[in-house]
Every structure is written in C-alpha cells, then in structure tokens.
Amino acid sequence: DRDTDKKRIEELLEENMILEIAQKQSMNESVHLGWELEQLSKSTDLADSEKSFVFELNECASSRILKLEKDNQSLQNTIQELRDASLTSRESSLKFVELEKENQQLSKKIEKLQNQIEKEKQSNQDLETLSEELIKDKEQLQVAMETLKADKDRQIKDLKQENDHL
pTM of the full predicted structure? Predict the structure, then answer.
C-alpha cells in the first residue's frame, strides 16, 4: 500500500508540475493577448483619428466645391452680361472681338472649374468609400478583440477549475 501510495504521490506531483507549467504558459498567453488587445485598441484609436481626418477632408472638399460652384455661377453671369453688352452695343467690331476673346477665356475657365468640381466630387466619393472601409475594419477588429477576450476568459476559467479540481 505504501509503495502504491508513493507512486500515486509521485504521479500527482508530476501532474501538478505539468499543470503549473501549463498555467504559466497560459498566463504568458494571457499577457500576450492583453498586449495584443492593447495594440488593437491603439490601432482602433488610429482608425478613429483617420476617420475624423477623412471627415475633415470631406468637409474641406465640400466647401471647396461650393466655392468653385459660386465662382462658376459668377463667371456665367459675367458671360451673360458680356453677351448682353455685345448685343446692345455693336458700336465697333474691335470691342466685339475683344468681348468674344474674353468670352472664350471665361468659357475655358468655366470648363476648368467644372473639371475641378468633378475631380473634387470624385475625391469626395473616394474619401467616403475609404471612411466606410475604415469603419468596417474597426468593427471587425472589435469583434476579433471580443472573441479573443472571451477565449482568454474561458481559458483562465478552465485552468482555474482544473487547478481547483487538482
């Protein structure tokens, strides 16, 4: 009986040592998971700042588009005034030629402004798409973080139960 008891004690000691090693490894994993969670939360903070940066860019682009549209409207009004002036005052062919040149220049400016507006709209759409992708990435990271946390908590609980059982 003593020999079997000694063997059983030795087996239990070995098992206890194995469990202690496993517990240490689990604690190391927990520390590592905590570090990963911290890194994920930092990257989430970066995603939030990128998101606010994107929204600031959107606001800036929108205000710029509005300014360009106002300039465009002003130039169109000027063109209309020039056309009206050219119709009412056909005093000299030189003035008419000058007005037409100015009209052409203004038309080119309008065309450039319209191109700029289109580019700004496209860049605005690109920024909105990027913003949506960043929000999706953030949500995925949060889900992954919650999953890791739940797994960590479950592992700790299992190890505590196992340790208590032993």
Answer: 0.35
